[in-house]
Amino acid sequence: MENRDPVKLIKDALGKALVHFYPLAGRLMEVSNRKLVVDCNAKGVLFIEADADISLEKLRDRIQPPYSFLHQVLYNVPGSDSILNCPILLIQVTRLKCGSFIFALRFNHTMLDTFGIFLFMKTLGEMIKGEKEPSISMVWQTELLSARNPPRITCTHHEYQQAADQPTNLDQTNLVQCSFFFSPNNIRAIKKHLPKHLHYSCSRYELLTACLWRCQTLALQLDPEQVVRVSMVGILRGMKHGGGGGLLPLLLGYYGNAFVLKTAISYAGVLCRNPSGYAVGVVKNAKAEMDDIVDQEEYIKLFADLLAVRGRPPYAVKGNFVVSDNRNILILFF
Length: 334
Known about the structure:
The chain is α/β, with parallel strands linked by helices. 31% of the residues lie in helices and 17% in strands.
């Protein structure tokens, strides 16, 4: 890319990549029972080019989360951030005066998940390098994850339950977005607060999920009788199903959402009063159940049936801590 404009390279490659991800150039619309569909109208995505009078060296640690300058390298175009009738992708490329550049991306999560955006970025990179076709053929297999006819619900889904007297939304005026980095020493320090049977048996995922769930609940100062949740994302790609040792038949190039949620609940007062081992135990049990249910095609269908019957119900937001583990995203591709 020496002596070549990164903005032009990326913009040209983006047009080629969207041929293989054509739904992303459309707009989401809502039909009966709040069902989302894509209008493949080829209206395109938002692309912003910018220049910054600063070098990468001068940015130093500011390049790491939580990105105090995020709004400058990923401009929120007014009227572009709704789910419906808005661009599904927003990309900004910012040239730095040292010759480097910053690539920033915002996408509509109702259309694709972490694996899907990885596929998109992989294809974009290949187009930049001059490839004619992506190394992985893209497919749009949403019918495999559709509700049954007729749909049926036979179990409780706590991630969508909300008591009638409890507010669905959370006041976010006093909330900030932060990133936390946990070193091995931090992990060891947290584990010291656990009973022996959990000290050696819980994973880092379970430990950190429980710790952050409990800390968030303490910080929100919720009513002790408030039901709080921890919702864990179960990835369906490559998972066994049907009890026969087969795989969920999603092709490698499927870039839509492919996950279910498993939620554990507790009362806020119980979670906060008890030591950390209580939260770890709740998370650990829910994680074990999640590992079992993603192996069952029945539960996957039940999850899809719920969304169809209840008309895309909103998540329980207040007191719901949602966790996704993306550490192993590359395993499916390499």
